[in-house]
Fold:
Amino acid sequence: MDDREICEHLYNVKRPWFVSRVSVSDDGKRVDMYLEHERGVKWPCPLCEKLLSVSDHVKERVWRDLDSGLYKAYIHASIPRIGCPDHGKIQVKAEWSEKSSRFTERFEAHAIDALLSTDTTNASKILRISRDQTWNITDRAVKRGIARKTSSPERIGVDEKSYGKYHHYITIVYGIDNPSVDNIEFDRKKESLDKYYEKIGKDAASKIEAVSMDMWDPFIASTKSNVTDAESKIVFDRFHIMKHMNMALDDVRKIEARNADAKELLKKTKYMWLYSSENLPDRYREKYEILKESDLKTARAYAIKENLRNLWQCGTEDEARSFWKKWYNWASHSRLEPVKKVAKMIRNYLYDVLSYFKHHITNAIAEGLNSKIATVQKMAYGYSNKDHLKTAICFHCGNLQLYPGYIKNKEVSI
Ligand SMILES: [Zn+2]
Structure:
C-alpha cells in the first residue's frame, strides 16, 4: 500500500475521487492530500440532480480536515462544473464540505463537539484554528440549526437579561414544553419581541397558546398586537411577581434602617429577608425567629410577601380570586408604601396574573436553561462583538441540529 492508498483509507476517499499526490511537511507539521476524480464520470446538478458531464473545473481549493497524528491535514481539489440545460454552468457539490466552508464536514462536526464542551478560546486551541474561524464555525452551526427548524413552540416564555457592564438588555424567547431558547434580540422594547413574532410568521403566531412574562408593558403590547386573543393567553410569571415583592420588601428595609434602633436590628439581614421561610439557611435561623415576631415594618412586609406565595397554591381561579381580595386588603392597608405600590401594580394586571390557573405556566420551567444561559454569558463576557453572545446562547441553549449535512457518527466518504 503506498502513501496515497493509506490516505484514501485514513480519510475514506471513495471513487470517483482518489488521492493523486500526498505531501508531508515536517516543519509546518502538515499533510496535504491532492484529490482528483476519474474521467468520464457524470455528476449530479446540485439543483435538479440531472447527471451531466464535466465542462470545466473551478480553481483548486483547500479544506482543513481532521488531523493526522500530530499533523494538520488539508485536502486539495478542483471541483468540476457541469452545464445543466436548466441551471446553466454550475459547480457540483463537494461531498466533503458545505459550500463556502474552508473545513470538511467531519472537521466541523468535531469542532462543534469541542465547542459544546468548552469555551471558544479553549476550543480554538484544541482545534488549532483561529478564534475568528471558531466563531465562524459556531455561527454557521447556529444558522444551519435555525434553517432546519420546522416548528415554533406553542407555549413560550419571554424574559429579559442584562449583559455587559453597561447593562444592555437582550430579550429571550424560549419554548416551555421543550425548554430551549427559540430567539434572542437586543433591547427589551416592543420591537424586540415584535421581531420574534415576525420571524415565526402569522401562522405560527396564531398557534401560540400561552405566553409567560413579566408585567412589562412593551412585551404586553407586542404580544397583543401579534398574537390572536392575547388577553387570555398572557400569564404574568409568578417568579417575576415575587421578585417585585422582594424588591418592595428590600425598599421597606432600607427606609426603616434610617432609624438608628431599627438599623441595629436590621444589620446584615438584607439577604435573610429574600429567602422563603422554608429555605432559610441555618445561619439566619436564630435572628429570623426573633425578628419575625418583632414590630419591625420589615418583618410585616416579609409576612405579606411570604403570604402572597400562597396565591399560586390555590386550586382554582375562584379560590385564587378570593385569596387575592384578602391579601390585597392586607397589603393596601399595610402603610408600607413600597408594598402598596407593588400590590397596586399586581391589581392592575390581575386578569393575567390569575390566567395562571388556566395555563399553569411559569418562566421557572426553564430554570435549568437559565443557569445554562448564565454560564454562556459568563463565558462570553468581554467579547467585543455583541453578536457573539447571541450566537453562543443559541448554540448552547437552542436545542438546534448543529452538525453539518450528514447524520453524526455516520461514516462519511469523500
Ligand atoms: Zn440542474
